Amino acid sequence: MVSAQILTVGDELLSGDTVNSNLAYLGERCRRAGISVLRAVSVRDRVGEIVAALRDAAGWADLCLVSGGLGPTSDDLTAEAVAVACGVDLVRNEEAVAVMTEMFAKFGRPMPDINRKQADLPGGADMLANPIGTAPGFAAWLPDPAEGGRRCLVACMPGVPREMRRMMAEQVEPRIQRAFALPAVFRRIYRAIGRGESAIAVDIEPIIAAARTRSPGLAAVYLHYRAAAPQVLVIVEGTPGPNGERATAEELAALDREIAPALQPAVYGIGEADLAERLIAALARNGQTLGTAESCTGGRVGALCTGVPGSSAVYLGGVIAYHNYIKVRLLGVDQGLIDANGAVSEPVARAMADGARRALGTDFAVAVTGIAGPGGGTEEKPVGTVDVAVSDAGGTTYKRLKLFGERALIQHVSAMWALKMVWDRMIELGLTEVGVQD
Amino acid sequence: MVSAQILTVGDELLSGDTVNSNLAYLGERCRRAGISVLRAVSVRDRVGEIVAALRDAAGWADLCLVSGGLGPTSDDLTAEAVAVACGVDLVRNEEAVAVMTEMFAKFGRPMPDINRKQADLPGGADMLANPIGTAPGFAAWLPDPAEGGRRCLVACMPGVPREMRRMMAEQVEPRIQRAFALPAVFRRIYRAIGRGESAIAVDIEPIIAAARTRSPGLAAVYLHYRAAAPQVLVIVEGTPGPNGERATAEELAALDREIAPALQPAVYGIGEADLAERLIAALARNGQTLGTAESCTGGRVGALCTGVPGSSAVYLGGVIAYHNYIKVRLLGVDQGLIDANGAVSEPVARAMADGARRALGTDFAVAVTGIAGPGGGTEEKPVGTVDVAVSDAGGTTYKRLKLFGERALIQHVSAMWALKMVWDRMIELGLTEVGVQD
């Protein structure tokens, strides 16, 4: 198996200024290509520290994917570091200068002189075009520190995520395919909301243990649990065993018949697609529409829905009824109901859902009202008390959540549960099912 | 300066299943404590790979912060790896078993047997209590690989972010303070929306160059740019020079008088507080309220506002008018205006903002309508065309954005610009100013 290191460069990754989303993206692309990422390293914008990480990779990795440090400013030092690690000088790439000049001209701006630095690439490196930014990337071979010959393909990409992603897909992945023979690694993902990781493990592990006895490929499968509240993913991956034996796609798919029922009613689907994608697709298949009424989630349910391309066909809109006055004015909730029960209560959640369905003219509406904290909790209704209701022509379903954690987590978990409640209702109505969607 | 490695453990970090937010959190806590994080490493859930990363840290770091791999399942191996690196055995910690048993009892659930494994800690390690999860952490001293004596404090925390954060604050940071003498590192952050990183650098670098001549402390400052569209942060940090000289808080604060004006009108504030926090605080100071009308952002402006604790005092709510029918029905936009100009147009954006202010009864309302893609673009209005309008009693301001990138980016950038437009209008009305807020 091709082994890789991911090297992300930038003080901002170590100082907490930036969350390292590039690492996750590059890791996913490698996994899908059958490349085994054994280690990820983040270093500061210092030549010596970048060089040390590159030399370490050259000692054991076939591939080192690098992002960051290609910009125009004085703290962008990746090209210099790769030149040192390769034992070559920086050479100004005139093609890169021309592309950059043209890009600034297109936007009607003069190119600042400091941008020219971005065209200084390690001698012998291949330039990687950046159609949506000024910093070109480059690819080179790092010498093995012990032997001196070419050892590790290093591909340097910008730190700006959208530029890195496009360069990875268009420039780097084809080079990797040319350089290495890559096998396919299959995996199966079971997606659950409503059951903890330990409880799931207790149910799943005997099933996997039995499966391991069936074939050498299944014996080698790797079992992961990925918990990000409220969701737990169970991932069964066909990683190769000691003699290269690995589970086939068919062997993994056959596990569905045992694993999915064992996780009911928490499991909502199998495969890569997330809950929002599945929900939007299921609504579209049935010609049904959805609306939202959000208090404590403040727009997050709408954001989850509208994050799915094409959601406009089924998600018509919503009301963010943060203040009670909006619940009354736009959703038609009776002020007396709020006075009698409080804004966070079953009757108000139900009235918000029913009111949203009327006000928005949708087939389904989901409402969320709760106490996200840090203030606003009482003994009877502590922070984390959240009521969710789903309204459709056949009735209104309701659930009270009792959540823990900080404000942002409570808001996120509540928004995910709102989608799960709609999904569960669609299953109850026979409009969708727990299936495979990648 | 105390030097640290952050070690995050878990296949999910390398396979792209999880974005490594723990790294950013731990990096920020270290920066604020004056600890210099020189390197961050992520490895898979394999004993040998965790041990190698621990031994590497023991060779150069004073501190190694570890998160992940403390759970109950078979792929949780951090305690075993630390035991190997320390040359000790795992020992069942009966206090940890008792705490765990009690926690399960509190939730009325029997403790699965596999959870006991979480109480097996490296011999001689201190248990770190986890009041909100079942996995305790632990702290130990790694021996220097060359000398054998104690060298590097290693603190192992759970991978679940909320559990890790609380353990870091309550258990780990006090231990670090006891173990090391930590100096204060000051920094100044200038926050801008509406100007690119290169253009900002051209304006800023001469100011910093001149400042460096003023004192040895200022000569040593470290200048960062952190770009996350649409925002660029300029960070001037008092990192120590070769002889330990560092800029004082007062020296850094004095830079405001030059840097803030040089970045106008893009800069909205100085300090840690983000735009949403400042906007909510400014509205509250003035007793003003805000509402939202969102089409392409689908709730993200509301989510940004309601992410701020206490926002309920000023953010009353909004309408997610994703379908045109909702724009007409709930915001009172004239259907003829949409037919004549299209939903993404200046007249419709203005009508949405004015309509939202009326419908929601707020002092300010901001409206966003645009084409987030990937579909829906035309030659005249390509994907990324977004209209933003702000309505208040004094009038309605408007701006057309021309954005690039994928759907999620366009939605995020548009939502941030919506807040910036309200902020700019409040500045124009004399209701707020560009100030320091941490």
Describe this protein's structure.
2 copies of one chain form a homodimer. The first copy, chain A, has 438 residues and is α/β, with parallel strands linked by helices. Chain A has 3 domains: 3-179, MoaB/Mog-like domain (Molybdenum Cofactor Biosythetic Enzyme, Chain A, 3-Layer(aba) Sandwich), CATH 3.40.980; 187-270, Alpha-Beta Plaits (2-Layer Sandwich), CATH 3.30.70; 275-428, Maf protein. Helices cover 40% and strands 24% of the residues of chain A. The first copy, chain A, contains 16 helices and 17 strands. The first copy, chain A, has helices at 11-14, 21-33, 47-60, 78-86, 94-106, 161-179, 197-212, 216-219, 249-253, 256-262, 275-285, 300-306, 324-331, 335-341, 346-360, 407-428; strands spanning 3-9, 36-43, 63-67, 90-92, 120-122, 126-128, 137-143, 150-157, 187-193, 222-228, 231-237, 267-270, 290-294, 315-320, 364-370, 385-392, 395-402. A 6-stranded mixed β-sheet of chain A has the order 2-1-3-8-7-6, with helices on both faces. A 5-stranded mixed β-sheet of chain A has the order 14-13-15-16-17, sandwiched between helices. In chain A, strands 10-11-9-12 form a 4-stranded antiparallel β-sheet. In chain A, strand 6 (126-128) and strand 7 (137-143) form a beta hairpin. In chain A, helix 3 packs across helix 4 and helix 11 (275-285) packs parallel to helix 16 (407-428). The longest helix of chain A is centred in the last third of the chain and has 22 residues, at 407-428. At the A-B interface, helix 1, helix 2, strand 2, helix 7 and strand 10 of A face helix 1, helix 2, strand 2, helix 7 and strand 10 of B.
